[in-house]
Task: structure prediction
Amino acid sequence: METAASHEYPAPRMMGPVTYVRQVAAVADAELRKLLRDPTELFSRAIQPILWLVIFGQVFSQVRGIPTGRIGYLAFMTPGILAQSVLFSAIFYGIAVIWERDLGIVHKLLVTPAPRSALVLGKAVAAGSRGLIQAAIVLLIALALGIELQWHPGSILVVLLAVMLGSAIFSTFSLVVACIVKTRERFMGIGQVLTMPLFFASSAIYPLDLMPHWLQVVARVNPLTYLVDALRATMIAGGESAHGLATDFGVLIAVFAGFTACAARLYPQLAR
Result:
């Protein structure tokens, strides 16, 4: 009897850009329909940024030893909490892919003519759309706390692009991990190990200058640092970029391209 392990999936056929975009959109649409059927996850995800901003932020805003430049500490950490929300919601995206593997959905996707990269990009686009909902939640909390935000259309557009790109990066990274470990138990353990180091080894809640030298080195290769930097420069009135928006987006795009290529290569391994 033929098994999944011995099955060779056909190589995707060459297709034009319009067809490729349609394939990506179809995968993204299927992913978003899952969210519409069960929106409770969005409400549960809103609790964490509320706790961080209302409790942690209010307390640490009284500490004067954290240099945050021209803005208060609560405003300083708000982009970091948005980036954290994006990270925490996207990093466990791979668990759904493992569920799809167990249900046989991955096998069905692999026999379609869609390129593997289209399957990965479709999931990344869906994750980016979920990130926009996280952004809306954090912005509403920031407004309620009286944090002065930038409402220039260009700034809002950059914030939304950064959030979508950040969500796509960490969801694709999550997919890479899922393709390697293949079991929910292992994935949950690795996901829990990765999230907090990624968060604390970034500029989300304190400037890089406060870190010891070795941690600064780690933070500078952490994509979350560049996501936070882009958000801080465009989201908060008076916020500044430590690296420059061109550098921030250049690093994020390069990381996303690398994870996408890796995930597209590893995706067929899920079915084995």
